[in-house]
Specification:
It is a single chain. The chain is of the alpha/beta class and 365 residues long. The protein folds into 2 domains: 6-119 and 311-345, ATPase, nucleotide binding domain (Nucleotidyltransferase, domain 5, 2-Layer Sandwich); 130-305, Nucleotidyltransferase, domain 5 (2-Layer Sandwich), CATH 3.30.420. The protein has 11 helices and 11 strands. It has helices at residues 47-69, 88-105, 114-125, 165-175, 182-190, 222-237, 241-271, 286-296, 307-310, 314-326, 358-361, and strands at 6-11, 16-23, 27-35, 78-84, 109-113, 133-138, 143-150, 153-159, 275-279, 301-304, 346-347. Strands 10-9-6-7-8-11 form a 6-stranded mixed β-sheet, with helices on both faces. A 5-stranded mixed β-sheet has the order 3-2-1-4-5, with helices on both faces. The longest helix has 31 residues, at 241-271. The protein is globular, with a radius of gyration of 21 Å. The protein binds 5'-O-[(R)-(carboxyoxy)(hydroxy)phosphoryl]adenosine and zinc ion. 5'-O-[(R)-(carboxyoxy)(hydroxy)phosphoryl]adenosine binds next to helix 4 and helix 5. Zinc ion binds next to helix 3.
């Protein structure tokens, strides 16, 4: 193939049905994201309903993306879909559909990891969003702090020990009688509140921690969530729930963002790299973006996608697939979806240059 490939990226890992047609690295010729509002009724994603809705809509979503792009399925060079992690029934719909479309045309199929796709979200819109960078990936299912010296080499520094950051926003939203998805609702309400109204804990941020202690890097949101629950009970008991819930939202958001930004800054200090990428749904949070920018300072860079490309979408899947395809990572015909797919290229080992004495201790490495 001499011209740049046209990639179809399909995303169905949770409650968005999305398809994108990407030509080369950045020409997003078609992109459709259909959110399933049915889950609002239940206050969270119902896996069985999510899978059903994907099945009912995937034909129309892919057709719409193709027609925006002015191409047909036969013009697609590389077919790609999110293969995991995510809700297995939901993943199987997008994977099965796309893999079959590739197979029928004897074209390559790329099985994309959802969180690697989030890493590639910002670069679709901004060609500077290239490694090296420290990445904070925060979604409804994951919170990962990763050092990315180059695409495909991912060093895991920290992760959540309990709830994901987005999950914490969603749970706090429920406590505050806000609709699902909770993140945007909490963030909107927080605009009207006082972030200093309630002094909530900043878990896992002790000055006594050292880089060798996993707690230095990991995050935990369950203690913060419990503190919010107590606060919500108090304002209910005092009969001031309506008046004060914006203050709770603002105070919670400030605590969660403080922890995320501080942990990310620890990685910036370790690596000496003042380039930060925010990915995943929580990267749409305005306070997170602005606090991160403030802390990194004018000499640094903070990359994040537009809100549309921060949430689950087919464009990031197509872009990650292009990278994998160019590396020859084409899936075998019997590839299947996996709710716990391992992150390709992710290691918990740090590069030698960040381990004290490693260079002198093991010159052969
Ligand atoms: O990446 P994503 O769209 O789906 C998953 O892979 O999970 O992330 C969804 C998560 C939800 O938990 C949602 O509440 C959260 O991202 N989220 C936000 C904001 N927008 C979405 N959290 C905080 N502030 C936001 N503005
Ligand atoms: Zn996601």
């Amino acid at each position: 193939m001499t011209r740049v490939p046209i990639v179809l990226g399909v995303e169905t890992s949770c409650d968005e049905t999305s398809a994108a047609v990407l030509e080369g690295e950045r020409d997003l010729r078609g992109h459709v994201i259909l959110s399933q509002d049915v889950h609002e009724i239940f206050g969270g994603v119902v896996p069985e309903l999510a899978a059903r809705h994907h099945l009912q809509r995937i034909d129309a979503v892919v057709d719409a993306a193709l027609s925006q792009a002015g191409v047909g399925l036969d013009d697609i060079d590389v077919f790609a879909a999110t293969a995991g992690p995510g809700l297995i029934g939901a993943l199987l719909v997008g994977m099965g559909w796309t893999r079959a479309a590739a197979w029928a045309r004897d074209r390559p199929f790329v099985a994309v990891h959802h969180m690697e796709a989030h890493l590639f979200g910002p670069v679709v819109e901004d060609s500077d969003a290239e490694p090296p960078f420290v990445a904070l990936l925060a979604s409804g299912g994951h919170t990962l702090l990763i050092w990315v010296p180059e695409w495909g080499r991912y060093h895991l520094l920290g992760q959540t020990r309990d709830d994901a950051a987005g999950e914490a926003f969603d749970k706090v939203a429920k406590m505050l009688d806000l609709p699902y998805p909770g993140g945007p609702a909490v963030a909107d309400l927080a605009e009207d509140g006082d972030a200093d109204a309630f002094r909530l804990p900043r878990p896992m941020l002790s000055a006594a921690q050292t880089r060798e202690d996993p707690g230095y890097w990991d995050v935990s949101f369950s203690g913060l969530k419990t503190a919010v629950l107590h606060t919500v009970r108090e304002i209910h008991d005092d009969g001031v729930f309506e008046e004060r819930r914006a203050d709770v939202a603002a105070s919670f958001q400030a605590a969660a963002v403080d922890v995320l930004v501080e942990k990310t800054m620890r990685a910036v200090d370790l690596t000496g790299c003042r380039r930060v990428l925010l990915g995943g749904g929580v990267a749409a949070n305005r306070r997170l973006r602005s606090q991160m920018r403030e802390r990194i300072g004018p000499e640094g860079r903070v990359f994040h996608a537009s809100p549309r490309l921060s949430m689950d979408n087919g464009a990031m899947v197509a872009r990650a697939a292009l990278f994998r395809y160019e590396r020859g990572d084409v899936a075998p015909p019997d590839v299947s979806a996996s709710s716990s797919m391992p992150f390709p290229g992710l290691t918990e080992a740090l590069p030698d240059e960040f381990i004290p004495d490693a260079r002198t201790a093991s010159p052969s490495r």
